[in-house]
């Protein structure tokens, strides 16, 4: 009996350990941490008319109360080292007509510390809401970037007075600067078009330091990038990007970031004309604008889930509606671990300026990954021959898994419109070592 009991315990530990290990891939948690504070149907929310207006500059400490609904009009700047505090449950409506935006200037602070049961909401003031209805939220800090001198976000604002330009600067030498707390916050229908193909972002963090708290933020239906990070050093935790027209997570200008336990859900029918990715990692847009003696962009990404929710993946790829999930530019570093990429074309694309050699591939790491139902895995841009890359990342030492499963088989409760669960459905996963799986159609 004793031997039987020991054997039963051993079997249990093996099963438990295996299940726990698998569940560590992608977003994780004993419970579904999306419950209560997220909203995957924001167009069904009906808020009361605004009772207060926010406009111009906020130059002294100010508190927004839950009992009021605020209308954000024009470009609102928090300046003069002031702190803007927003109570849990507060609703701020971005004005469509004036391309409203909220900017926390360098030295100022935002305390938007919502609750799981009472999140803070930024959304559109239109009755029928659309992506790009208003600007978005911008936070400017004094942490370093790799640009020459200090950077500026002045191009985001129309008709900006010369005296206001100082409020648009970011960057410095303080990696530990603190721009405040943004937690349990939703930003909906942001990303207003500025000109041509330029847009506001849902949330832009420029030169933000590592004492700033950025966690439990959901950005839905952004016409620009959901999360964009320029320089700075920041830890990002439990972020959600849902149906963005542009990139879900974009890192640039020497950003030093950790992105953990976060989600991006894309739709092939919601995207800009140029296409978009879940994650784009660049060190610059133009080489002449950056100082190569400074650090290039470096992102350490753990437990991410990137999902393209196609009803017919093969047909959507043939129509050109599906792109790669991850794009990495030259002189940028990526260390991606324990993450899920499901339903893309292909999973990863490296800029064509990156030479395929050991030195470069050691700077772009994919380990303990779960690549599911992608039309190819890792390629260099404009090069269909990825044999060297497949041999490198397919090495058993990296513990990458390749699968061809329906999304409905892969995730716990994908189709629950109100309370979806994007954690892996452990018992239904069908793994394979086939590096070039046939596409499955959900």
TrEMBL record:
Highest taxon in the source lineage? Bacteria
User: What keywords are annotated for this sequence in UniProt?
Assistant: Signal
Signal peptide as annotated in the record: 1-21
Protein's recorded name: T9SS C-terminal target domain-containing protein
């Amino acid at each position: 009996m004793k031997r039987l009991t020991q054997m039963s315990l051993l079997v249990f530990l093996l099963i438990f350990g295996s299940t726990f290990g698998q569940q560590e891939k992608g977003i994780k948690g004993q419970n579904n941490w999306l419950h209560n504070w997220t909203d995957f149907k924001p167009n069904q929310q009906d808020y009361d008319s605004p009772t207060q207006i926010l406009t111009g500059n906020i130059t002294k400490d100010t508190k927004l109360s839950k009992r009021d609904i605020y209308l954000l009009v024009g470009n609102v700047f928090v300046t003069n080292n002031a702190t803007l505090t927003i109570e849990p449950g507060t609703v701020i409506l971005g004005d469509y007509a004036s391309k409203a935006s909220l900017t926390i200037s360098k030295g100022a602070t935002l305390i938007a510390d919502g609750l799981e049961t009472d999140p803070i909401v930024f959304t559109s003031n239109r009755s029928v809401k659309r992506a790009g209805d208003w600007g978005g939220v911008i936070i400017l800090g004094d942490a370093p970037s790799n640009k020459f001198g200090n950077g500026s976000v002045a191009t985001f604002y129309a008709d900006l007075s010369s005296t206001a330009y100082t409020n648009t600067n970011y960057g410095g030498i303080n990696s530990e600067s603190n721009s405040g707390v943004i937690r349990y916050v939703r930003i909906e229908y942001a990303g207003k078009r500025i000109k041509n193909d330029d847009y506001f972002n849902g949330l832009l963090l420029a030169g933000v330091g590592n004492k700033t708290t950025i966690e439990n933020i959901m950005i839905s239906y952004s016409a620009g990038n959901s999360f964009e990070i320029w320089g700075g050093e920041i830890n990002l935790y439990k972020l959600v990007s849902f149906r963005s027209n542009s990139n879900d997570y974009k890192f640039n200008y020497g950003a030093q970031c950790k992105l953990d336990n976060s989600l991006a859900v894309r739709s092939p029918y919601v995207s800009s004309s140029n296409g978009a990715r879940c994650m784009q990692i660049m060190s610059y847009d133009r080489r002449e604008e950056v100082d190569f003696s400074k650090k290039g962009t470096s992102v350490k990404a753990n437990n991410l889930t990137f999902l393209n929710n196609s009803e017919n993946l093969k047909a959507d790829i043939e129509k050109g509606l599906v792109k790669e999930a991850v794009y990495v530019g030259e002189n940028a570093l990526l260390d991606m671990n324990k993450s899920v990429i499901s339903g893309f074309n292909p999973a990863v694309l490296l800029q064509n300026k990156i030479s395929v050699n050991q030195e470069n591939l050691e700077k772009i790491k994919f380990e303990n990954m779960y690549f599911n139902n992608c039309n190819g895995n890792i390629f260099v841009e404009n090069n269909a021959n990825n044999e060297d890359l497949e041999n490198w990342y397919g090495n058993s030492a990296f513990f990458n898994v390749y699968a061809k499963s329906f999304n409905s088989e892969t995730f716990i409760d994908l189709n629950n419109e109100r309370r979806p669960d994007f954690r892996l459905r452990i018992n239904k996963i069908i793994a394979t070592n086939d590096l070039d799986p046939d596409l499955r159609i959900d």
